[in-house]
Amino acid sequence: MKGVILSLSPAATLVDITHDVPAQDVRYAAIVWEDVTGRFPAGTIHVGVVDPGVGTDRAIVFARIGCQCYLAPDNGLLSRLVRRNAPSKIVRLTESEYWLQPVSATFHGRDIFAPVAARLSVGADPDHLGVPMDRLVSLDWPEVRRSPGRIEGSVLMVDSFGNLITDILAEMLPDGHAAAEMRVFCRGHVVSGLSRTYGQSPQGTMVALVGSSGRFELAVVGGSAADAIQAQPGEQVLVTWAVPAS
Questions:
Q1: What value, to the nearest 5°, has the Cα angle with vertex 155 and ends 149 and 161?
Q2: Domain 2-132: which CATH class?
Q3: Which of 45, 105, 136, 157 is the most exposed place for a label (fewest CB within 10 A)?
Q4: DSSP label of 242
Q5: pLDDT band at 246 (very low <50, low <70, confident <90, very high)
Q6: 145-240 topology per CATH
Q7: How is the chain split among helix, strand and coil, in percent rounded to 5?
Q8: Can you list the positions of beta strands (E) in the chain?
Q9: Sheet holding 60-65: strands in order across?
């Protein structure tokens, strides 16, 4: 893919966000894009090929979301991004003059995504790539439920360290004394209090903290929370704390 892009756009700057998305895990990739792509300069072209449906009739799309541009299979990879910002443009790629020929049935990343990305980078008009669309495939993302002294969320993903990254955001959590006294429940395990960072607790301790993405997570210092409690994406996470009587 990089060779194709540089052959068509020699001045392109190529940045790898990650090659560590678990195989065929569209949901994991969608979360990575939500957390990372907004950090890039406006107009960056993001290419995502977590594409278990490659070669089928699933669409390949160009989408402009906020100030970023995306090329992706229409399989839910963009579904977390569009929860925050409605796309200002969606185009289904149909114009094969922008692709490499012949197109492999199993490597659209090389033969479609990469050449289209390269041509966009040198000024190709997205409107010429295909036909407009008005919606994208969506995945079912559970909603966090909140009530006084209680948050019910779930594990969104397990990162490479075995940390359990949840859909509970930092701004949902209590602060001050309530944070110090809160309790976190997951798979029959309980963690008390909110840590500031991993290193303030002894090796092997399970801690609850807010990670760099602003998401609440469970971690084991120097180990894997996923292995320690045999947890995986979708596990329920309950946070409780005492609410002062009014």
A1: 120
A2: alpha beta
A3: 105
A4: -
A5: low
A6: Elongation Factor Tu (Ef-tu); domain 3 (2.40.30)
A7: 25, 25, 50
A8: 45-47, 60-65, 68-73, 89-93, 130-132, 145-147, 150-158, 164-169, 183-186, 189-192, 206-210, 215-220, 236-240
A9: 45-47, 68-73, 60-65, 89-93, 130-132
At residue 243 the predicted structure's pLDDT band, cuts being 50, 70 and 90, is confident
81: alpha, beta or left, given left = phi > 0 and alpha = psi -120 to 50?
alpha
Neighbours of 81 (CB within 10 A): 23
pTM of the full predicted structure?
Answer: 0.90
pLDDT digits (tens, 9 = 90+) for 26-77: 999 999 999 999 999 999 999 999 999 999 999 999 999 999 999 999 999 9
Short-list 209, 217, 214, CA closest to 233: 217
Tokens standing for residue 3: 């060779």
Distance CA 121, CA 114 (A): 11
Tokens for 123, please give them: 């000024």
Query: Which tens digit of pLDDT belongs to each residue from 108-143?
Result: 999 999 999 999 999 999 999 999 999 999 999 999
Report the candidate in 231, 9, 16, 4 with the shortest Cα–Cα distance to residue 122.
Answer: 9
Q: Count CB neighbours of 8 within 10 A.
A: 18
Torsion angle, alpha carbons of 54, 58, 63, 65, to 10: -100
Alpha-carbon dihedral 130, 134, 137, 141, rounded to 10 degrees: 150
Per domain, the residue ranges of the chain are 2-132, 145-240
